[in-house]
Design goal:
- By secondary structure, the protein is mostly helical.
- The protein has helices at 4-30, 44-52, 59-82, 85-105, 109-130.
- Helices cover 76% and strands 0% of the residues.
């Protein structure tokens, strides 16, 4: 039987998995490891370089940061897929909340708006899947 909870968790698992894959492709292309991966990249590495340029962080450190994002997205995708609702939403909310904080710190309000929208979506999805009627 199709349920709201299963649909939302499945969609979020697929979304986080796809985001992790695209960010991994972005890393592989940005560092010349797999140039052909550029076709699937997320363009988040370039966005990070631009956003954090005033800090003068070295590219390898930015790569490690995006690698951490890939790891967190992968764990979130697996948690959503397994129905581990609390862990999945906590990790996803921490990830996008962290993004919004960095955006605020660096005064990038366009990017901040996007991250806050995703965070809001996650919180609404969390509430929707907590409902007793979520299995209908």
């Amino acid at each position: 039987m199709i349920s709201l909870r299963g649909t939302v968790l499945g969609t979020l698992a697929a979304w986080h998995g796809l985001a992790a894959f695209k960010n991994l492709c972005d890393l592989a292309a940005a560092f010349g490891i797999v140039p052909a991966a550029a076709r699937w990249r997320s363009h988040n590495f370039a966005a990070m370089e631009k956003l954090l340029a005033p800090l003068g962080l070295p590219r390898p450190l930015l790569g490690m940061l995006l690698g951490g994002v890939v790891a967190a997205e992968t764990v979130a995708a697996v948690a959503f897929a397994r129905g581990d609702r609390e862990r999945a939403f906590a990790l996803a909310a921490a990830l996008f909340g962290g993004f919004a904080l960095v955006d605020e710190l660096m005064a990038d309000y366009e990017l901040d708006r996007t991250h806050r929208e995703v965070l809001t979506f996650l919180l609404v999805a969390y509430l929707a899947t907590a409902s007793r009627n979520a299995n209908l």
